[in-house]
Amino acid sequence: MSQTSKQISYAALRPRLRDGMSILFGGFLGVGTPEGIVGEILDSGVRDLTIIGNDTGTPEVGIGVLVANKRVRKVISSHIGTNAETGRQMIAGELDVELGPQGTLAERIRCGGSGLGGVLTPTGVGTIVEEGKTKLNFDGIDYLVERPIRADMAILKAHCADGKGNLVYQRAARNFNPIMALAADFVVAETDAIVPTGDIDPDLVMTPGVLVHALILAGEQ
Amino acid sequence: MDAKNLIAFRVAQEMKDGDVVNLGIGLPTLVPDYLPEDVHITLQSENGFLGLGPLNGKTLPNLVNAGGKPCGMVPGTAFFDSAMSFCIIRGGHVDVTVLGGLQVDQEGNLANWMVPGKMVPGMGGAMDLVTGAKNVIVAMEHATKEGGAKILKRCTLPLTAAKKVSAIITELGVFRFIDGKLVLTEIAPGVTLDEIRAKTEAEFVVSPECCEMETPREAQPV
Hints:
The structure holds two protein chains of two kinds.
Chain A: E1 22-25, H1 35-44, E2 49-52, H2 64-68, E3 72-77, H3 84-91, E4 96-99, H4 102-113, E5 119-121, E6 135-138, E7 141-146, E8 151-158, E9 160-162, E10 167-168, H5 177-180, E11 184-191, E12 194-195, E13 214-217
Chain B: H1 3-12, E1 20-23, E2 42-45, E3 49-53, E4 72-79, H2 82-90, E5 96-99, E6 103-105, E7 110-111, H3 126-132, E8 135-139, E9 151-152, E10 167-169, E11 173-178, E12 181-187, H4 193-198, E13 205-212
Parallel strand pairs in B: 1-2, 1-5, 5-8, 6-9, 8-10, 12-13
Antiparallel strand pairs in B: 2-3, 3-4, 6-7, 10-11, 11-12
């Protein structure tokens, strides 16, 4: 690892992994999830994880493998329907699942990373989502107060990075990744390519490098 | 033509040229097949883009629809992150959302995301879509497979959103919510008002302008 690059190996992630930690993971049904980092977390043997992201993929794809291998204690997500194992463990009382609207999840993570104490959203008013939450009315409209989310670590998937950690995502793989880059104590991105610093047009940077602590070149051991 | 395609055809006639539209999975994805020739819409995909298009045989990496399936994109497509995607959805920038329904009631409440004890997939983006879209069209078969009513006095399943539905389109007819009342505005060819009443639990008004539901020319009455 050079002084000018944030590049590390998968193995260098090991000392940062521990039982019971919370992890924000990018991806939508596995697209935009760093599969190599998920594999490293699985191989490390850590358990009792809290994982936070849009969905739990499938038992074979995306973050779902951690659920299928019983490494997860709690899931905060908007959708678990594509991973039967998440539902099975939830019904068996082995897994705590907190479901919330996708837009609300995105805003809670954005709040967690941007110094905000929460967000007011009309989504969920009049449904079971409002249970236990503060409701406020402004100008005749009811809003739920939704609180911020942060995690110990965020694991992202980028298409291209430079040595400073500036990130570019590809197509629909962007999804939750840029928001999660704001909201964790340690942010690591698995990327398909690492180019020399300066080679990414500054106008096209999607996540500023200062938010990214480490880069892993996808597939490189 | 089966009931699903008949419904999709009628939903497609609701679209206006230039509309930004989000289609739920299942039946709603058939809607683009039946758009009138002079109506062009932009499809929003909740996983982060505007410009969803048909696959046309060629797959690209990291290009999937909100069901995680490979899809296409049209020239001028824009990708963005999930916060932007739901700013667009919640912020009223989507003109129409078309979703399936497990139950809809006469108050305009929709239930389509869980059956306690049986099916708990999660709401995904449905709650934000129904809350934020300018027009919420529920496109569904009129009754359950067992023949039970789905258009009810009051939903018994957990709601997706309260009092947000604009219209219900089934193979039997079209209902709209007008001034807080459920109004039957169209009846499908070959269907009687008595048949609709028998398969509908909700109280509804029959519009004085109630007319025959538009169906494709070649379609046979169901």
